Amino acid sequence: MIKDYFAGKYPRGWFAVLFSDEIKTGEIKSLSYFGREFVAFRGENGQVSVLDAFCPHLGAHLGDGKCEGNTIVCPFHEWKFSQTGACVDVPYATRIPVKAKEGALQSHPVREVNQIVHMWFDPAGAPPTWELPLDECMNGAPGWTRWYFKRWRIRTQGKEIIENLVDTPHFTYVHGSPIEDIVIRFDGHVASQQSTIGGHPTLGKKLTTEATYFGPAVQHITMDGTYPSKQVNIHTPVDTEHVDVCYGIKLQRDPALHDTDAIAREYARFAHEAFEQDVVIWQRKIYRAAPLLCDGDGPLFQLRDWYRQFFEDEIRSV
Ligand code: FES
Ligand SMILES: [Fe+2]
Fold this sequence. Notes:
Layout: E1 13-19, E2 28-33, E3 36-42, E4 48-52, E5 66-68, E6 71-73, E7 80-81, E8 87-89, H1 98-101, E9 107-108, E10 110-113, E11 116-121, E12 148-154, H2 158-161, H3 168-173, E13 179-187, E14 190-197, E15 207-214, E16 218-224, E17 228-237, E18 243-251, H4 260-284, H5 300-308
Antiparallel strand pairs: 1-11, 2-3, 3-4, 4-9, 5-6, 6-7, 7-8, 10-11, 12-18, 13-14, 14-15, 15-16, 16-17, 17-18
Bound molecules: FE2/S2 (inorganic) cluster and fe (ii) ion (FE2).
FE2/S2 (inorganic) cluster is lined by residues 55, 57-60, 74, 76-77, 79.
InterPro entries: Cholesterol_7-desaturase, KshA-like_C, Rieske_2Fe-2S, Rieske_2Fe-2S_sf
GO molecular function, one term: 2 iron, 2 sulfur cluster binding
Cofactor: Fe cation
């Protein structure tokens, strides 16, 4: 029997953890990902940091603490930590323990691009090996709306979600939108799909999409349907059996439209309903390491080979 190579493992890469407007200056957010606990906080310099959540002193959860300037203060004895996880103050000690000064708390690389906060996670603890592209239209360009997003915490794994990229027949049977033309490419840590879809009940009479994964869990989509839109399909493992999967959409502003934001909200609702059709399937399906395929299926094994690079220490994308 072929074994499931991905079972019980986490891939290496950039993972979206928050939209920018979910974490304001001075705010702290607790994050439960990769079977671990983290805290994110935005200092007064505007920078978001992600640190391990448990204080190196006596283990309190820093998510219950407060943000002061560019530091996070533990709720238990008010040790204070910098954005890189170094202890910078112990209010009742004459001297900060040396070990506490040197990054007592692990900090994790963060990139806030496209109005989304991403953290780098590598089970082996290695630094990032690629960067996420900045898309001006996603990054707050004035001609575009804000992100309208929805997040689901579900019982599935990233390996299921990414398979949508090559699963051409499901577009007809799950979404009611048959694919007319599709080109799939794999290149290093990038996997992309360009397609023309012959109409969708709510998203447009004809859809042209370009959907690209940058690493295992962040997909950028440019879609022309009823309206030109940018979309993100992002997922982050909560543990080895659950993920937070999130779908975001923003529309290009059109002066001819009365209220692009109201339209974007409604259009996002349609997009989320379409995405939910996949969510329902993922929640209950099992993973077939050796599926029985037919000649009308997409290049599933090629996709799995591509995904495997994020789990193998010996293969590093450039
Ligand atoms: S547990 Fe954090 S300061 Fe004591
Ligand atoms: Fe789908």
